Every structure is written in structure tokens, then in C-alpha cells.
Structures
1.
Amino acid sequence: MARIKVHDKEFEVFLSDEQIQEKIKEIARQLEADYADKKPLFIAVLNGAFMFASDLFKHLVMDAEICFIKLASYKGMKSTGNVITAIGLDQDLYNRHVIIVEDIVDTGKTLFNFLPKLQHQQPASLKIVALLHKPEATEYDLAVDYVGFSIPNKFVVGYGLDYDGLGRNRREIYQLAPGT
Ligand code: IMP
């Protein structure tokens, strides 16, 4: 099995380019069916989701918009939880059908903390599409509406996902190899 080294760790192929692309086409067909004539607004979360968002958007045959945001989290002065702010979110979401595009939902913390900010703008609907989901890692009550692959709770890189900055530029998704 093809292995790669990223920094100090060895990874092996977990999902091939073909598997990923086939799955994205399936998700695109599903979204077309669910959002026909709704002109949804996709909000892709940088950095990790850039490849997935790009491929998903290319496969969609429908009127749709896309924007890219970065999420920054900081500890609120008084609040107990993390406060999440979005950089680059300048669209008015009122009455829009909004779909968040994520590379991976791990604990669910990031989106769980961020969704109320979007709900506040009263979108007509708000859903999440994630290429990868680690159900065993879930710590927050977050519904992921469209999931490409449910995967084991192991660290993955490739296809936009990084390990300490590297590994994003791979077409495949790699999993931490046993014994590394
Ligand atoms: P969550 O808030 O725990 O759901 O984590 C979400 C973010 O953590 C993702 O958008 C990724 O940027 C990062 N992440 C979680 N698991 C992995 C992984 O296995 N590989 C690379 N990045 C990950």
C-alpha cells in the first residue's frame, strides 16, 4: 500500500482519488434534488475545505452561489465557551438557503459554536455538508446533514487536510499508518 511521509509521520492511502470524486458526484446529485430552484448559498470553511468545495461546486448543475470564510476562535472575556468569528462573511443570509461546506467534522466543536451566529441572520434553511465525519469523535450535538464518508477516529491528511501545514496537496486521503 502506498505510503507517504508528512513531517515525522507515515500515512497510508485510505480513500483514492476515484472514490472521493465518485462520492462528491453523489452528493452533488443529492443537493441538486434537494435544492432545485432554491439558489442555495454555499459557505466553504477555509483552509481545509478548499478542494472539496471546488470539486463539489464544479459538479453542481444548478444555480448556486459560493463564498469562502475563515473561522477564528478566541476565548470570550467573560463567556465560558469559545467565541467563533467568521472572516470574509459579507453576504446577507436572511431568507437564504445556506449550506456550510466542511472538509471534516471531528468533535463538532467548531461548527457547533459557529452555527448560532448564522442562525441569528435568519436564513431560510441551514445545513452542513462534510466530506468526512468521525462519528466516534463527536462531542457536540451537531447534525451533519450530508456526509461523504464516515471514518474511524484516526488522523487523516490529504485532499485539503493538513498535518501541521503539509499534506493538503494530495488527491487522495491518507490515514495515519499503524505503528507511527
Ligand atoms: P472539530 O471542531 O473538532 O469538528 O474539528 C474541525 C476541524 O479540525 C476541521 O475543520 C479540521 O481543520 C480539523 N481536523 C479534525 N480532524 C482532522 C484530521 O484528522 N486531519 C486534519 N484536520 C483535522
Note: Residues 48, 102-110, 155-157, 161 surround inosinic acid (CB under 6 Å).
2.
Amino acid sequence: MIRKFIRNLFSPKASASDSIVKLRVISRKKHGVTSDKISSCALKVTTCLQQAGYSAFVVGGAVRDLLLGLIPKDYDVATSATPEEIRALFRRSRIIGRRFRLVHVMCGSETVEVSTFRGPSPSDAKNISIIRHTDEHGRLLRDNVFGSQEEDAIRRDFTINALFYDPVKEEIHDFLDGYKDIQEKRLRIIGSPEKRYREDPVRMLRAVRLAAKLKIQIDTPTAAPIGDLAPLLQNVPPARLFDEMLKLLFSGHALACVVDLRKRGLHHGLLPMLDVILEQPMGERFITLALRNTDKRIQRGMTVSPGFLFAALLWHEVLTAWKCRQDAGEKLIPALHQAIDKILAIQHKKLAIPRRFDAIITEIWVMQPRFQVRAGRKPFRLLASLRFRAAYDFMLLRCESGELDPEIANWWKEFKNADDECREGLLMKEGPARKRRKKRSNRKQTNKTTEDITVVTETTK
Ligand code: ATP
Ligand code: MG
């Protein structure tokens, strides 16, 4: 029965073809991954489950990364035990997930995700036991479709993500020729590419991210339908899309990913207006620099703030809206606030960027005009503000991209690193501006707008 189901899953165009259900057991001598390479928590979890009589394997990205000589980001375990059985074995564990329940097992600061072998989706599984639970309104709370190890392999996305590592025997179980694909550096979807992308369009983004991260090629039949099916991403719930975009942007290979997304036509409507921004040379340069910096930081193990990156991705939209407001006669700072409100409101409508990032994004943007004030007490106040570092880095990007005079970046670098006495010496004279301020104060206006006049000319030139 299962074999029949599996045969049905694979259309004639299937990229992982008829060899699909032939289990190959690969010995340590061949694959070379010893059990001391996996995290102590993953080792403990798999050993414990096996001792209790269940089968248990490290699966997915961790096996793939170990075979490619990379350090796994996290560990997933797949087992024949049900969530309740897993939960009963580990004191520090909890069941999570609604539709498909899995268990988080904690050891010290590490968490391993343990899931029961999963079977085919309900529509495909007429003869496989399905456990469904709904609330009083009929909303689906749980949709656990348990299956065999073989089925668990087949429901995964790519062959290289469907390898099972048994740390006790130090063997790899391979149902889909994933081991060969790893060696040949090929990303191949399991089953019919079109069917699998239709089932879950996020797999197209995963293909791009994994190819960039692992520096491997997407197999031709796996890549072929992506261009045509790209619009399907519009049906993916925004929160899920956002999570996937975070993974992509913080993969350490964001620039390569965005370039490839573009090449494959996957960028439309994905990131907030990315398509529009990338069409403008200045916007493209700014985003390229921001992504390159982010990649460098991540590769060096440094932290990156999502707020900063979103501020960068949206900045050229803000600039356009800001200019529009000024052209319509609005003063500089109110125009900036209006532009920010507009751009963030558009994002909220699309739910592209969650509101929790608004505060940091807004702060970084609002601080930008202040970098152009290099006289009086204001530079000192800016330097002392909480978000100075993020806003300063952002200003450096603006200079580097050609939007601002690089002289501003140089001045701030010097000012930031100097002692108080030297800082006083670096301050600019308030010559003509003072005159203007006097004139304005005669008109009972605050001196705030004086510096703003300088800003207008610099930002709109
Ligand atoms: P990484 O953790 O390095 O980003 P990963 O492949 O481990 O990559 P996860 O999101 O941790 O990605 O997923 C774990 C595993 O779950 C995958 O290796 C794959 O087998 C399976 N998986 C994840 N997303 C999907 C999907 N959309 N469709 C099918 N299987 C998936
Ligand atoms: Mg993973």
C-alpha cells in the first residue's frame, strides 16, 4: 500500500526517480561521520530513545551539514515514538505545535527537536491512520499523521535533507540517493518538483537559500518550474514568509540569496518592495552593501539586528516618500515622520515586517538628519544616545552607497574616537547658520530648523 502511495506521489517528471524507496545503509567507513561529531544532546536523545525500544535518528540539515564538513546550526531527531512517549522519557521536555505536534527536549542550553516519523498528507493517506483533534468550533488543533521511516524521508523537501544518521551504529540510512547528491553537490527535490512546490511554495525559497548556503547547484528539473510558480508565494501566510525571509537574510549568504531570488523572479512582493528598490541603481547599491555587511558579520559570528536590516531594506522607499512630502511643501523633519508612517503602514498592511521592529527601525531613520549637524552641542547629544551605534553604522552605509558625502562619515569617525577636548576642536563654526538662526529667532522660531536647512540641500541633491 505504502509503495503504491509512494509511486503515485512521483509523477513521470519526478526528479528523484524510481530508486526512491530502496534503502541504502551507508557505513561509517564510507561516510566518515563519527558520533562524537554530533551534539551531546542529540546523542543523548537518540541513545535514550533507542534504549527504550524505539528507532531514532538524527535527521535533516544536521546530517547534511556534517557530511559537507559544516557545523550544524541545530539538531532534529526523528523517531518511531509518539510525542507522549517521547515526553515521558525526558524530564526537561515539552510538546509543541498544533497541527503536527513535536517535542522539544532540553539539555543545558541546547534544545533538540524530536518528531515522530511523519506520513503523507491526509489527502494522500486514505489507508494510513490519522489522528485528528478539533476544538468546539471545528478548528483543526492537531493533524498528526504518523508514518514509517520511509514515508518520513519522502515527505521531506530535498534528497540531501532526507538522510537519517544513527549515532549508535554510526550508519546513515538513505532512501532517495541523497548521499550521492551531497557528493555531487546537487540540490534535488523529492518527487515531482511542480507538485512539491504547489504543496508548499516556501520550498522554492528554501532551494535558493540552501543552494547559496551550501554552495551547491539546484538540479535542472528542480529549478525549472520555479519561475512559473513564483506567484504562488503570494498565498503563503505572511508570518511564515517572514520567518523564511529571516532565515534567508541571516544565513550568512543573504547577498547571494537575493541575487538568486532575483534571477529566478522570486523576489516580487517577497521583501517589502524589494523589486522596486532593486531597480534603482542607488537603492540596489545600498541594499547590496547592507547585505554584504550583514553576511560578513554573521560569518564572523557577530550579532546582527533584524531592525537594522529592515531599516536598510526600506530606506530608499522612505527617501522617496520623504522627498515627495518635502516637494509638497512639508518641512524637513515633519516630512520625514510622515514618510516613515507611510512606509511602515504599507508594511503592516502586508504584514511583511512585524510591528515589534517598528521602534528600532524608526529610531535609526529619525536619527539620520542629526548626523549632518556638526556644530554646537547636538553632536554630543547624538553620540550619547542609546541607538547611536546602529544609527551611525546606518549613516556609514549611506555614505558608502554614494547617498551622502563621505566627508560626513570621516568627520563622525574622528569625532566618535576623539576625547572631549579634541571633539570641541572638531566642531564646525556656526557662521552663516547662526545669522539665519538669529533671523529666525527674531521671528520667534526655534533654532531647530536652521540645521535642517543644511540637511534639505544635502539629502535632496
Ligand atoms: P537549516 O537548519 O540549516 O536552515 P534545515 O534543512 O535543517 O536547514 P529546517 O527548517 O531546520 O531546515 O528543517 C529541518 C528539516 O525538515 C529539513 O532538513 C527537511 O528535511 C524538513 N523540512 C523543512 N522544511 C520543509 C518543507 N517546507 N517541506 C518539507 N520538508 C521540510
Ligand atoms: Mg535545521
Note: Residues 60-61, 73-74, 76, 156-157, 161-162, 200, 202-203, 247 surround adenosine-5'-triphosphate (ligand 1) (CB under 6 Å).
